[in-house]
Amino acid sequence: PVTAIAYPYGHRADVPDTIGMVAKSAGYRYGLSTETGINRRGRDPFMLQRLNVSGWDSEEFALRIAREFLS
């Protein structure tokens, strides 16, 4: 089953406050915004942020993830 939904215009200002309730009632467990960032504990699971990894090799990816989690 599909458990996540991605919002095509997913900035906080573009997504209604009720989106989590609507998505959850439709059976989704997560929602992906278009905002960039790291998701920490307590983050709204229906407004998860993403990382743009375009052009990163595996070493660069590991360095950037480590930097985010150690900061």
What is the H/E string? Answer: EHEEH
Strand content: 15-25%
Structural class: alpha/beta
Low-confidence stretches at least 5 residues in length (pLDDT < 50)? none
Biggest sheet, spatial arrangement of strands: 1-2-3
The rounded Rg comes to 14 Å
Number of strands: 3
User: Helicity, in percent?
Assistant: 25-40%
Shape: elongated
Average pLDDT confidence is 89
Number of helices: 2
Largest sheet: 3 strands, parallel
Protein traits:
single chain; 71 residues; alpha/beta; 2 helices; 3 strands; 28% helix; elongated
Topology:
Elements: E1 4-6, H1 19-25, E2 30-36, E3 48-50, H2 58-70
Parallel strand pairs: 1-2, 2-3
Description:
With 71 residues, this protein is of the alpha/beta class. 28% of the residues lie in helices and 18% in strands. The protein has helices at 19-25, 58-70, and strands at residues 4-6, 30-36, 48-50. The protein is elongated and about 40 Å long. The mean pLDDT is 89.
Please provide a brief summary of the model.
The chain has 71 residues and is α/β, with parallel strands linked by helices. The chain is built from 2 helices and 3 strands; from the N terminus they run E-H-E-E-H.
